[in-house]
Amino acid sequence: MSLGTEPDILLAAHALSLRFGGVLAVNQVSFELRRGEVFTLIGPNGAGKTTVFNLISRIYQPSSGEIRYKGQVLTQVAPHRVARLGIARTFQNIELFEHATVLQNLLIGRHVHHRRSLWREWLFTARVREAERQTRRKVEEVIDFLDLQHYRDTLVAGLPYGVRKVVELARALATEPELLLLDEPSSGLNVEETGDMAFWIEDIQRDLGITVLMVEHDMSLVSKVSDRVLAMNQGEVLALGTPAEVQAHPGVAEAYLGSADDASSLRRPRP
Ligand SMILES: Nc1ncnc2c1ncn2[C@@H]1O[C@H](COP(=O)(O)OP(=O)(O)OP(=O)(O)O)[C@@H](O)[C@H]1O
After folding, report:
1. Is the whole model's pTM more than 0.90, yes or no?
2. Which atom of ligand 1 sits closest to the CA of residue 48?
3. Are 151 and 102 in contact (CB under 8 A)?
């Protein structure tokens, strides 16, 4: 079978490279995401994790290499079409509409499913009404799933940071993704909030069957939720395996020692 078309492989990255001027941010990186797994990219600062992430969400075009998603060449898909393929993401620094409520943010997030023309909208046909009902149903389901009922009509600007992170997760889930990209889900969270985030990720995997690709620094979260971990250093793959295998890999500890980071527990300050 050709690359990325095996039924249990959702996404396959093959020999991905990206150069920014003189910096080879990602160098010949290959890996496969299996359906239903939580797969985490780790590595010291500047290792290339975010760049890989941005290549998959199509913010960047690789200098060479290919990404296949469900057999389709993702690197040929226009960036604005990625969400329609069932790929959703969260951002390290949270990207929500601050002056809209939680409910409104989720409804806006659902817009990826609306492909109707303006005249249809004006006529407000039965089909449009049914789509609206479906959207409402899905959004309310996600609010219940992530226990956000208490905040549904609160403006995002008035929410504690930890709740905003969950709202961002909800916004991504409201699009009904098959693949969820989480960019440092624990960044800015305290220990208790990070524990809650681990539970949400486990629930998303177990109850919704969504495949998760995550960039994360907090090794306690990584070990708790990841099926497999890929360690990067200086743009290259250093190790791939279970969390325990990767943490035991001598090159991984060395890479962290050579940086300002610490492989055992990395907690970033609240942005
Ligand atoms: N837009 C860009 N322009 C120029 N260089 C970049 C750009 N984005 C990343 N780089 C460089 O590419 C390399 C990899 O960066 P990247 O952000 O992917 O690392 P990272 O592993 O995500 O690090 P961190 O944990 O600090 O977020 C670094 O040397 C970085 O300075």
Report:
1. no
2. 18
3. yes
Asked if residue 75 is part of any domain, the answer here is: yes
Q: Whose CA is nearest to atom 28 of ligand 1?
A: 46
CATH number at residue 77: 3.40.50.300
- pLDDT, tens digit (0-9, with 9 covering 90-100), for 199-256: 999 999 999 999 999 999 999 999 999 999 999 999 999 999 999 999 999 899 888 8
Q: Per the domain annotation, does 59 fall within a domain?
A: yes
**Closest atom, ligand 1, to C-alpha of 92:** 27
**Burial of 128 from C-beta contacts in 10 A (0-12 / 13-18 / 19+):** middle
Please indicate whether residue 233, judged by its CB atom, sits closer than 6 Å to ligand 1. Answer: no
User: Closest ligand 1 atom, CA of 47?
Assistant: 21
The number of domains in the chain is 1
Residue 48 near ligand 1, beta carbon < 6 Å: yes
45 lines ligand 1 (CB under 6 A): yes
This model of the complex carries an ipTM of: 0.96
CA distance 10 to 31: 11
Q: Note the pLDDT tens digit of each residue in 20-63.
A: 999 999 999 999 999 999 999 999 999 999 999 999 999 999 99
For every residue of 136-164, DSSP letters joined together read: HHHHHHHHHHTT-GGGTTSBGGGS-HHHH
Q: Is residue 262 part of a domain?
A: yes
- Domain annotation covers residue 234: yes
* Domain range for 37: 1-84+227-271
Determine the Cα–Cα distance for residues 192 and 54; give it in Å rounded to an integer: 29
* CA 26 to ligand 1 centroid distance, Å: 9
